[in-house]
Write a structure and sequence with these properties.
This protein has 535 residues and is mainly beta. The protein is built from 3 helices and 31 strands. The longest helix has 13 residues, at 123-135. The protein starts with a helix and ends with a strand.
Length: 535
Amino acid sequence: MRKSLFMASMALIVVAYSCKDDEVSSDLPVIEEEEQQDVLADYKGPVYADDYSAIASWENRSSWNLANVHDPSVVSDGKYYYMYGTDASYGNALEGHGHFPYKKSKDLVNWDFEGTAMAATPDWVKDTLNNMRTRVGLDPIADPVFGHWAPVVRKVGDKYRMYYSIVVDNFIGNGLPNTEANFDNTWTERAFIGMMETSSPLLNDWEDKGMVVCSVSDRGTDWSRSSTGDWSGYFKYNAIDPSLVVTPEGEHWLVYGSWHSGIAALQLNPETGLPLNEFDVNDESTWGTTIYTRNSSSRWQASEGPEIIYNEETDYYYLFLAYDELSVAYNTRVCRSRNITGPYEGFDGSAVIGKDCFPIITHPYAFNNHSGWVGISHCCVFQNEETGDWYYSSQGRLPANTNSNAYSNAIMMGHVRKIRWTEDGWPVVMPERYTAVPEKEITEDEFVGSWEQITLNYARGTQQSSVALSLSSDHKATGALTGTWSFDAANKVLTIGSLELCVERELDWEASPRELTIVFSGLNSSGVSIWGKKN
């Protein structure tokens, strides 16, 4: 709904899977034991506020850090990480300053706002749109209303390629802007995915390569819509939310789509970055292969934001999906396949096409002493190639009326979280944001005490809240989880009963002042994510 509507604006007794720690070193140096305590004592985590409304304006952009982030994509040039995103900002602070804002960082913690990657909408978008309209007997649109969304950036050889989305927010029939007053019983116009290249993101010198694909329909010129409450969808594939993956064999695939009939995979020419076979809006065989639909009988999917990666250690392709609307209900699902075009399977091993996929790896939630986060999805997943560590990044939104601000749900903070992998090859996301805490061995006695535990059961539009958990010195767990507990320090795995949980030392963002703590994340026997944080 975001992309189409946003145009108009218990104890647990379980059997679970163990976690694999990274098989190579962390991205931080290992500290000798006698030095470790001093290293942690000297550590200072980020102190910026989650509610950045006071510094949201363009004039304060040097203080933003991860404020004003939406639909991020992260790439590294070996020295810096670069984070690109949608033209969304609290109070429309980015309006009039170009498109696809980006930040850079050396440590994934401290980010500098650098500007925007695109100065103005390329001329080809309007020209192509109006040529298409003319061919079906429609008048051209003099001043299309454009939206600039969801870029993905990948390094390809010695170049960096950005695939970006530009939506046209005008009705097909009368060509007028998408407002209730202008509704003419037609759908809104198509979207386009374009591509541009640079030799260095640091230079921010992008050369546009034109259109890759556009929204396509199998309904010919029947773009009629009975009402604004009709969600039957004119377009089969909605040309937004691109993601790019390169197979071990060197094939390049664009994965794209949102809400309408599902997600498609289209093979590209590695040399040009454009479709391997000529894209034709009238030839369905050129549009790509359907790899996921949430409901095969509906043109209104409530799934979007496909992000696809290949993990060479597990030999799986992982397709991450954003579910539901973005303001509150957004949650992240993942499925996997041995083949780029599927079939993709969920946690239970069955094909997910035409049904909900599990596990859920992020969901609206709240620990104590904080408003918590909603709208936390549309992720990018990336790896530090030197260390092998994996990360998940997305926006998070504050709930409405946080700090008595009726508009706080429009506050979009960028989140970066560490990913760990279960022994069975599923990703789990850490419950606290990554802050580059120095490596110090976690000892068994550190687990004794009170914890908060959250089960990420699906509850559309509802934040999951924490339940008390206690781990005693005699290795008993009581409260939210029960059983005997033990800790495998070598693999950083906490076992409670038969539930195995990946453990990290992270920053307690909900504490005041913030302080170091221990967190865990894992999947139970049903593939439900279990999060925890020591108080």
